[in-house]
Design brief:
It is a single chain. By secondary structure, this protein is mainly beta. The protein folds into two domains: 186 residues, no CATH class; 90 residues, no CATH class. It contains four helices and 17 strands. Strands 5-6-7-8-9-10-11 form a seven-stranded mixed β-barrel. Strands 12-15-14-13-16-17 form a six-stranded mixed β-sheet. It has a three-stranded antiparallel β-sheet with strand order 2-3-4. A hairpin with a 2-residue loop joins strand 7 and strand 8. Helix 2 runs antiparallel to helix 3.
């Protein structure tokens, strides 16, 4: 019986959790292929080889782009199915491509069939995948049979207008019947991410803390968090262990510098606590306090086969 598995490339996948453990200088930063865990790199090399008719995955190039917010990890962006643009040298307006790092891989769409530039037929369909950890989005699913296992790589579908959602079933219907119409749709329509529910552990405490009370360069243990709707949007409450005194737990509003990471819904609990550290705390001329902080998750894989953060 043929088994199946998906290459886990979500921002919240276990292999990419270590990305939360370092600081970022730029809002967008390339993650070199050479730094990827060996198992993911091998999977990506298999798909890149098929899509490019024999080329190996370049170790010095990148597949993923890391997005950060105020120096902390926010999101991961991988390969994208998109329509080309004559404004980019070598691309065409009416041609579909997979943008893989700096590479644009052309695909030929005919009713119910997709082939590479050299004529290799691909096993593909449109479906859904949780790329961001915040809900499922349309995905272009490319599959390869590897022995008794079918391996699937989810690829983001890029639209230009996010206001008009389109179901993956509609994309599949267009692909099977009128691929030219599919190109037009991809140029005009984008699907909204769907919210995904989750449960959060709330710890009973009457103690409150303010980020202004915390000291710079002192590690604080975070043992839980939960989201709250405010007039400014979704914010988060976090629980500090052994604060203000040992064996006490206090609750406070998360600073804006760690909200993007919390929005990816990482695992933070008493068993798997995170470490909060203030990197700076400056008093401005208007009396306000400017804070920069960092949240490091506890679950980091020390295996030498894991993600290399030196980039």
């Amino acid at each position: 019986m043929l088994e199946s598995r998906t290459v886990e490339i979500s921002s919240t996948s276990k292999a990419f959790i270590p990305l939360s453990a370092r600081e970022y200088k730029y809002e967008y930063q390339q993650l070199p292929n050479a730094n990827l865990p060996s198992s993911i790199r091998e999977d990506l090399d298999m798909f890149f080889n098929m899509l490019t008719d024999g080329k190996e995955l370049p170790l010095e190039e990148h597949t993923f782009l890391v997005k950060s917010y105020q120096g902390s990890f926010s999101r991961l962006f991988g390969p994208v199915l998109k329509v080309g643009s004559n404004e980019i040298e070598g691309l065409k307006d009416d041609q579909l491509y997979i943008q893989w790092g700096p590479n644009f891989i052309p695909l030929q769409f005919t009713p119910g069939k997709v082939t590479t530039q050299e004529g290799c037929e691909l096993d593909v369909e449109f479906g859904m995948y949780n790329f961001s950890g915040r809900g499922e989005d349309p995905a272009f699913l490319v599959s390869i049979d590897q022995g008794d296992t079918q391996v699937t790589l989810p690829i983001t579908v890029r639209f230009s207008d996010w206001k008009n959602p389109l179901d993956s079933k509609v994309l599949n219907s267009l692909f099977k019947k009128t691929p030219n119409k599919l190109v037009e749709i991809l140029q005009k329509i984008n699907a909204k991410p769907k919210a995904e529910g989750s449960s959060y552990e709330r710890i009973e405490t009457e103690l409150e803390f303010d980020f202004k009370e915390l000291e710079v360069d002192r590690p604080y243990e975070v043992i839980g968090y939960y989201p709250c709707k405010t007039s400014y949007g979704i914010s988060y409450r976090i629980f500090l262990n052994n604060f203000p005194e040992n064996e006490q737990v206090s609750c406070g509003w998360a600073h804006s510098s760690i909200r993007p990471l919390l929005s990816t819904r990482p695992v933070i609990s008493r068993d798997e606590p995170a470490t909060l550290t203030l990197r700076s705390k400056d008093i401005l001329d208007n009396g306000r306090v400017r804070i920069r902080s960092n949240l490091i998750l506890s679950h980091l894989d020390e295996n030498p086969e894991s993600l290399n953060l030196d980039f």
